[in-house]
Design goal:
- The chain has seven domains: about 1-100, Arc Repressor Mutant, subunit A, CATH 1.10.10; about 165-240; about 260-405, Rossmann fold; about 420-490, no CATH class; about 520-600, Winged helix-like DNA-binding domain superfamily/Winged helix DNA-binding domain (Arc Repressor Mutant, subunit A), CATH 1.10.10; about 625-825, Tetratricopeptide repeat domain (Serine Threonine Protein Phosphatase 5, Tetratricopeptide repeat, Alpha Horseshoe), CATH 1.25.40.10; about 855-985, Alpha Horseshoe (Serine Threonine Protein Phosphatase 5, Tetratricopeptide repeat), CATH 1.25.40.
- The strands form four sheets. A five-stranded parallel beta sheet has the order 9-10-11-8-12, sandwiched between helices. A four-stranded mixed beta sheet has the order 3-2-1-7.
- With about 1000 residues, it is an alpha/beta fold.
- β13 and β14 form a beta hairpin.
């Protein structure tokens, strides 16, 4: 027989004689093969694993040489070959005559007596392969030590039950000498010394425990401290009564046995609480979710908290490695310790065993044996009335009475929340990555400098625990910044997981391959096609875009349901509607498969056409009572609209024009005008070929309106002026009117009110001829603003009211809000601040309802000025602070400077004239820098001049000039910091 010892040494004997495997690489190869006896390993995998830093050809040569050394050392002509090798793979023959110390340790079951345990555990002479530092060795070493530690804890417990104090003194010291500082050993020794009446040794043992743990930067646990206090106080008694029967001791320990994870568990408190609640109320609970989301770890953690809740036992049944569903009953009987009887089905033996028991079975990894697991579960629950089952699977078992719990990904902060304390203390995904990275790289720490990169990694990986652990492992070689950059190639980057895990759990790609291979061909086809979407999609979109042959809209619904059941597609309910999406890493995988299929281009065309049609359907809805609903819909779909734009601008300029035209109002009302301008910058050069016609006029007009929305009035006017002759040549009245409206608005903003009035009158005449109520209402609003600036206040008020009535009849609340702001400005000019405040508040209320934060800037700063003018400085300061925040967030420089001027007014009226003068000087200089010297909005300029005069009255000329000059030298950032600091004091 071949005798192999790998625990604490590398030693191989045959017939009691030593065998010399002469080189370290050959020893490592031999150890790996025998530890995985019966498994064939591909040669390229072995070469890459054992010589990861060598070229492929060199690694293969090294493998051949190591294999030759092993064969040379092994006995000649054994009864059965020890090694099975061919051109592709190598394996250690599991049927050969051999003994392995590590295998004996793994064979130990939960029914072993203390004496049986001691025989096997005596062979554990130390850690696996000491002095070997291959990655696979480290992982296997931890795995075997966790098994040894578990059975040592069992042995201590059983010896205490039997009051075998001398054995405890022997085995407790053995355990401690192995160097892992096990607290259970110290506790057992304290009990043994106390039972023998030697309290001085109890105290000495506790002192040893504290010293040993201190070396690891740890303190004794509450359990250890509590035991010591009880023993020291004489509160622990040692009965001399009968020892509990061995069978009962085994059952008691079996109830508490669960797999021991090698790494700590992060967060999930809410999830565990919910699982405990569900198990308490339901007989079958299934944890579902995509591969790598942490179903098994969550089941372990929840089951640990259920220990003691089931008086007759709790059993963990791992089905991950099982490929034949007919063997499930055999696995269950082995775990339960049931003996097979002749003529009796195994499942009947299980039912008989569990029939009256109050017990919990945990079935882990059911997805690849789903039908058989469902059948067995249904049988057991029907016959065993007190039995409960907790299952984990990528899809539900699908039987009556099942309660599903979708395991969520780990929590992550939003991108803008980058405070280090937030990342460390609040979010599970961040904590998991940091802990795992620190474990493989002792120099790793989360800092202000790398926090953004860590956050990006966790978000790119959707908070999937397996993906985060694989990424953290790469911190041995790469900085987190480099890992984040390389995640575009995540399936090649995120490899080399635990070598003791099943192959499908070792890399990110293998995990997803496993789920993908379990699908039918039609389901794979839909899964690939769904990758065309960005940020989610509706059922209607999936049916319309993905239903090309051989799929139909009806089969799309059935297959989508199947993908949801398999945890490959996530359902997100928003109000009364459902949206579906792929996690980012699943989407990337599906896109690879789609590209391989050759379907990408026609699918992108269908996607483009669908979303252009959606935008065009929404355009008229944004001018009526349904505008909020359609603004929300466009916002939800905007990632898809971006994808449609990318394909449109690449393939068809006409389609690109249709899309930007349809989205103009969305950008103005809800979105980002800057993004629209970026799109137009790509489109404009391509319209030169059209010459002077209405299409080019329309592009120029849209670009002008977006520039106007960003208050880039000079550029806007140039665009409108170029658009006008194009529109006039085409004789397209509606386009001419739109351009004239843009020109009128821009001229008004540039204080060219006479020309603005001319443009507005011509525009109004065209809209009246076209009988366009929306265009008429908008032009009257422009005329009201121009008339107010010309000093005709009564006429302006009349025009504002007429415009307001028209917008309200149309159901266009957004632009009705604009009119309220105009009425507020007019009231403020006339000194009626109470009325102005009411108008601004109505505008703010409407814009909040419309969820249009960009537009909130103007009425917010205006309302703050009203509060200042009313002398309510306590409310004015936070109002200016809020308007400053909004203005800063959306890059509205006019809003920022108006807010800063308001802060100066507050300072001037609260006894800080020097600070006010300094801030007014900064505002004046910054206005000049953006070409707006002396050209603030009319009402704001009036307030500005009023409070400057108030400050002048409080300071002498020399002090005023000095502080004003100091302010003029301030940057925008310095001015903001100064304003906030001085007004908060």
């Amino acid at each position: 027989m071949l005798e192999v010892r790998l625990l604490g040494k590398f030693e191989v004997n045959h017939s009691k004689k030593p065998i010399n495997v002469s080189s370290r690489p050959a020893q490592s190869l031999f150890a790996y093969l025998i530890l995985n006896a019966g498994t064939a390993h591909r040669r390229e995998k072995l070469a890459g694993m054992l010589w990861p830093d060598s070229l492929e050809e060199t690694a293969r040569d090294n493998l051949r040489h190591a294999l030759w050394r092993i064969r040379k050392a092994l006995p000649l002509k054994p009864k059965t070959d020890y090694l099975l090798a061919d051109d592709l793979s190598i394996a250690f023959n599991a049927t050969a005559d051999y003994w392995l110390d590590a295998a004996e340790l793994e064979k130990l079951n939960e029914n072993a007596s203390p004496d049986e345990l001691m025989v096997v555990l005596a062979a554990y002479q130390g850690e696996l392969l000491p002095g070997f530092y291959d990655e696979w060795v480290v992982l296997e070493r931890e795995h075997l030590y966790s098994i040894f530690e578990h059975h040592m804890a069992r042995l201590m417990s059983l010896l205490q039950d039997e009051k075998r104090w001398l054995d405890i003194l022997d085995w407790g010291e053995r355990w401690i000498k192995l160097g892992q500082k096990p607290e259970p050993a110290y506790r057992a020794l304290m009990l043994a010394h106390a039972a023998k009446g030697d309290m001085s040794k109890v105290a000495a043992t506790y002192e040893r425990c504290m010293r040993s743990l201190k070396e690891f930067g740890m303190e004794p646990s509450e359990q250890t401290r509590s035991l010591y206090e009880k023993l020291k106080g004489g509160k622990e008694t040692f009965e001399t009564g009968p020892t509990p029967p061995p069978k009962e001791r085994r059952k008691e320990f079996l109830r508490a046995y669960l797999p021991v994870p090698l790494t700590s568990f992060i967060g999930r408190e809410k999830e565990i609480e919910e699982i405990l609640r569900l198990v308490s109320k339901n007989r079958l609970v299934t944890l579902t979710g995509p591969g790598g989301v942490g179903k098994t770890r969550l089941a372990i953690q929840a089951s640990n908290q259920l220990s003691g809740k089931f008086k007759d036992g709790m059993w963990w049944i791992d089905l991950a490695a099982l490929m034949d569903d007919k063997l499930i009953p055999q696995v269950v009987t082995q775990v339960l310790g049931i003996r097979e009887r002749v003529g009796q089905r195994l499942i009947d033996a299980v039912k008989n065993f569990l029939r009256e028991k109050q017990a919990l079975l945990i079935l882990d990894n059911c997805e690849h044996l789903i039908t058989a697991c469902a059948q067995i579960t249904e049988e057991l629950l029907a016959q065993c009335v007190n039995l409960r089952i907790l299952a984990t699977s990528r899809e539900a078992l699908g039987i009556m009475g099942e309660t599903m719990y979708q395991v969520p990904t780990l929590s992550l902060p939003k991108p803008q929340r980058l405070l280090l304390t937030d990342l460390l203390m609040e979010y599970e995904g961040i904590r998991l990555f940091v802990e795992r990275a620190s474990a493989v790289n002792a120099d790793f720490a989360l800092t202000d400098q790398n926090a953004r990169a860590v956050l990006q990694i966790c978000q790119q990986l959707d908070g999937i625990p397996l993906a985060l652990e694989l990424a953290a492992a790469r911190t041995k070689l790469l900085t987190v910044e480099h890992i984040s950059e390389r995640l575009n190639d995540r399936f090649n980057l995120l490899t080399q997981g635990s070598r003791t895990a099943l192959p499908r759990q070792q890399t990110l790609r293998a995990t997803i391959d496993w789920s993908y291979d379990l699908l039918s061909e039609e389901a794979r086809l839909l899964f690939r096609r769904l990758s065309i979407f960005a940020g989610g999609y509706t059922l209607e979109a999936a049916e319309r875009i993905c239903s090309e042959k051989p799929l139909t809209p009806r089969t799309v619904l059935d297959l989508l349901t199947r993908l949801v059941d398999r945890s490959l597609v996530i359902v997100e309910r928003q109000g009364e509607y459902e949206r579906y999406r792929l996690l980012e890493m699943l989407g990337e995988y599906a896109r690879e498969k789609l590209d391989e299929s050759g379907e990408t281009e026609p699918l992108r065309q269908r996607h483009r056409d669908f979303f252009i049609a959606l935008a065009e359907q929404a355009e008229p809805k944004l001018k009526c009572a349904e505008q909020v609903e359609w603004l929300d819909r466009l916002e939800v779909e905007f990632n898809n609209l971006r994808v449609a734009w990318d394909w449109a601008i690449e393939t068809d300029t006409e389609l690109a024009l249709r899309l930007v035209s349809a989205l103009l109002d969305f950008w103005l009302m809800r979105g980002n005008p800057g993004e629209g301008r970026e799109w137009l910058a790509k489109l404009l050069p391509r319209t030169v070929q059209w010459g002077k016609n209405v299409r080019r006029a329309h592009v120029l007009n849209v670009a002008g309106q977006l520039a106007y929305a960003q208050r880039d009035f000079a550029v806007a006017r140039l665009l409108f002026e170029e658009a006008l002759p194009n529109a006039r040549i085409s004789r397209e009245d509606k386009e001419i009117a739109l351009v004239l409206l843009g020109l009128g608005r821009t001229a008004h903003r540039q204080h060219d009110n006479q020309e603005a009035h001319v443009f507005a009158i011509e525009c109004l005449m065209i809209y009246q001829e076209l009988r366009d109520p929306w265009g008429i209402a908008l032009t009257i609003y422009l005329l009201a603003s121009v008339t107010a600036s010309q000093g005709h206040h009564a006429e302006a008020d009349k025009l504002y009211m007429e415009s307001l009535a028209k917008f309200q009849r149309l159901g266009d609340k957004f632009r009705a809000g604009y009119v309220f702001n105009g009425l507020g400005e007019l009231a403020r000019l006339l000194g009626n601040y109470e009325r102005a405040g009411r108008y601004y508040e109505q505008d703010i209320e409407i814009l909040k309802e419309q969820r249009s934060p960009v537009a909130l800037v103007t009425p917010s700063v205006n309302l703050a000025w009203v509060l200042l003018q009313a002398g309510d400085y306590r409310k004015a300061q936070p109002s200016f602070e809020e308007s400053l925040r909004l203005s800063n967030e959306f890059g509205n420089k006019n809003g920022i400077l108006s807010s800063l001027a308001g802060f100066a007014g507050v300072l001037g009226m609260t006894g800080k004239p020097r600070q006010a003068a300094r801030l007014f000087g900064a505002v004046e200089s910054l206005l000049e820098a953006i070409g707006m010297a002396g050209r603030m909005d009319q009402s704001d300029q009036k307030e500005f001049d009023h409070y400057v005069a108030a400050v002048r009255a409080q300071l002498d000329e020399i002090t005023l000039a000095k502080t004003w000059a100091e302010g003029r030298r301030m940057t925008l950032e310095q001015a903001i910091e100064f304003a906030l600091k001085e007004t908060r004091v």
